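Worked problem 6 (solution included).
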Amino acid sequence: MMRNLLLLVALATVATCRPRTLVILENVLTKETHSSFLADLGEKDTDVTYKYATDSSLTIKKYGERLYDSIIVLAPSVAAFGNALTPADFLDFVDAGGNLLMTASNKVGEPIREIAAEVGVEIDEAGTSVIDHMNYDVTDEGDHDLIVADDFTKTKVIVGDSPAPVLFKGVGMAADSDNPLVIDILKASQTAYSHSPDQDILEYPLAIGSSLLLVAGMQARNNARVVVLGSHDMISDAFYIAKTQTVMGVAKEAGNRAFASAVTDWALKRNGDLRFGAVKHNKVGEEPSDVAYRITDDAEYSITIEEMQSGKWVPFQAKDVQMEFVRIDPFVRAFLVPDAAGVFKTTFKVPDVYGVFQFKVNYDRTGYTHLYSTTQVSVRPFRHTEYERFIPSAYPYYASAFSMMGGLIVFSFIFLYHQDKPKTE
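Solution. The predicted structure is:
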């Protein structure tokens, strides 16, 4: 009996460790039109809860704590969320470390636009679409707003390796130039612009060319992630099984499914999440300890870094991780060399300056969570018994001292024993 009870407790503990994801649907039809996306989401080792946008029981926090790790909003045209939820509630959720993925469309509602604007992404007004007269799909009905997009970000951890072109039909976005945290995940081509297909262009569009975003992301300073897809249809079943073909191109399988899966993995922190483990430092040839270093010692530093890939922790591999040995300013900056187990190491000579120093690793790269580690140590000068008896650089001073002594002896001898001959008249 006790064994079964312990097993149940263990299973319950494992279950509670799974990430919790809330999916907010616009209506009942969304489950049918986006069944493939939702099915893929259910296979991502996360506990998924479904709610409708207008549900009166919709809530994302309780007693000031987040109820979910991530929220996916598939309700682009919602005018107001149920249970009096406001855009500020979703922004508080992100401030508390939660992840957020939203879809928009050319019928985008004000709540979605307001949330996006607060994270540095401006969504064009309802009724507008991304139009491209050069890169539209052959199945387009005449407005040239069903486009083929392939200008992905170069960050593979977000979009995967060599993503295929995707179909896009939705609203355009622009990044806030004052927000350096916004990531251009998918941009429109140079010939695209955002406007209403049924109206003449009398004012400058929100954005044109490569400044027009189709999918945007943002990683906050607390490592929370936000992704905004300008097209609700691009993750639908119809677009998942479609083919892409521009007027001058060849028919290809649309990469929407692989792209949506990769972006969702990144938004849910199933990819690109970093953590560090054991941090060790010691004098070369000795065991790790907290003993103070002496100036000019040869020191060794190591840190274990792991990366989340497809929901599993694996050793991180990179060649651009640096360690700094800092006392106000860095005195030493060295690249860390990883091994197969994700242990990054380097050796260096402690500077000829004593004081309180820090081993610091500050790794901040696009697509990865910010990794920061600091370890404080002391550096002492030589003790009076540790100096060399004779320092080679002081030989000129030794020579001058002994030459002075020798000169004094010669002068004293001459002064004492030398006698001038008396003068004779």
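Discussion: Residues 6-16 have pLDDT under 50 and may be disordered.
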